[in-house]
Design brief:
The chain is mainly beta. It has one helix and 16 strands. The longest helix has 27 residues, at about 220-245. It has a single domain (about 5-200), classed as Immunoglobulin-like, CATH 2.60.40.
Length: about 250
């Protein structure tokens, strides 16, 4: 769905989730989609079933794993529609931002290319990178996505306007998504490139506090010394008893 339409700009992306709750249950049959919008109060439907309205804070929906069709009715009556692949035991976060823009003339080349993504997500969450292109040409567009660092992995959407990227194992790093769009012509203006970044903060360091049953490195030495002292004390008592009984011993 091309979302830059006349006086309309809708950006769909992931955003910062309150917590990272992915893959907690090995046998989970459901996943969670968290959705917020700006403005809030937009009617939302998932797989054709109404789920009330969006809010400016995340609303969480626990759904069976598989393809979920999310439809949000925008203030001007148009529909924002996305098909979301939801793995079992994972959390996907989606933000929909609506703001009116002046009319944009259709270009015979794919220009401009706008990318949207959250500034930050928790490690392990799936990031959705979304592109919007104003294009009035008749030739089909070719989209080429690349992500960095090399350990970042595109989960789905290569060659389409939207990709998802797994952030597992990338704590403390920044994921950069780059999209090149062309309509196949020789005009340099008809090949456009855009980039967007998402940061995954490092894990918090926790201070370990000693407890009653923590291992004591010197305990065994202390026990050995006490045991040796008891043995020596017993030997002196035995020697003293023998000597008193037989002074000529």
């Amino acid at each position: 769905m091309q979302v830059v339409v006349l006086a309309l700009l809708v950006l769909g992306s992931t955003a910062i989730c309150p917590s990272s709750t992915y893959a907690k249950t090995k046998n989970a049959k459901y996943g969670t989609i968290k959705i917020l919008s700006n403005p809030g109060g937009l009617p939302i439907a998932i797989n054709g079933k109404p789920y009330g309205a969006t809010a400016t804070d995340f609303r969480a929906f626990d759904l069976e794993a598989g393809t979920q069709t999310v439809v949000i009715t925008l203030p001007n009556g148009q529909l924002w529609t996305r098909q979301i692949e939801l793995p079992a035991g994972r959390v996907k976060c989606i933000a929909v931002n609506y703001r009116p823009l002046p009319p944009v003339a259709k270009s015979p080349c794919p220009f401009p290319v706008n990318l949207s993504a959250p500034p930050q997500v928790n490690e392990g969450e799936i990031i959705t990178f979304t592109s919007d292109v104003s294009y009035g040409g008749s030739d089909s567009l070719t989209r080429t996505w690349t992500v960095s660092p090399q350990s970042a992995r595109i989960v789905s959407g290569a060659g389409t306007p939207t990709i998802t990227v797994d952030s597992t194992g990338l704590a403390g790093q920044q994921i950069t998504a780059t999209l090149a769009v062309t309509n196949g012509s020789d005009d340099p203006m008809c090949r456009q490139t855009a980039q967007v970044n998402t940061y995954i903060p490092p894990h918090e360091k926790r201070t370990l506090v000693g407890r009653e049953f923590d291992t004591c490195c010197s305990c065994w030495l202390q026990i050995y010394q006490m045991h040796a002292a008891q043995i020596n004390h017993q030997r002196y008592r035995d020697y003293d008893r023998i000597y008193k009984r037989n002074p000529y011993h």
